[in-house]
């Protein structure tokens, strides 16, 4: 039976999500940050005969994130999606999201490798950090300038405002290195919650590559987050990128699918 969740179910929901806390980073973060009583977010749970959770669906504006251990009531949750705000994206663990594919006429599909870092697999403790700086809002413009100079980065109009929001709300952090008075490399987290964080924005200015700067920013950032008792995760889409993160200790835990109509 699928029901609309209220905060009375919060502990049970979090226990259910915690078994794969990296994979459920976005759902956990959205619930912690926005709760069960907003007009832009809803959570539904599929409850079994004994009240046990068998599946979850979270809506954040037009983005829907389903999760279950194995099988999910794709037909039941799909009816909720069809009755709600227009679907912009359906995303989550590949094995779960794929169960919705026969129901919707998706025109766009993207799959990414999903990797996790835990304290026990971290390999790069104690790196030099005296030239690595924790970014504040005052550093945002310099970070945006560096990102804009890197052709691999997609430039979004909302990038500056989004970064300011992330730093202000402490749902993410950015570490950077400067060389010759300008931003040389950085790494960041996003979607931070009490259990986990996602690595994003790892980059090096073209003039300072092959010096290991971004790798060191990433490793120091990871060490600090791990020391807070959290795990880290990230997406990557090619083995070359993955090999860099695996040297730090990231391990593949699955695939992440993103579908849109």
UniProtKB/TrEMBL annotation:
Q: Name one GO molecular function term.
A: acyltransferase activity, transferring groups other than amino-acyl groups
The source's domain of life comes to Bacteria
Q: Which Pfam families match?
A: GNAT_acetyltran
Species the sequence originates in? Fictibacillus solisalsi
Where in this chain does the record put each N-acetyltransferase domain?
130-261
Xref: PROSITE patterns: GNAT
Q: What is this protein identified as?
A: N-acetyltransferase domain-containing protein
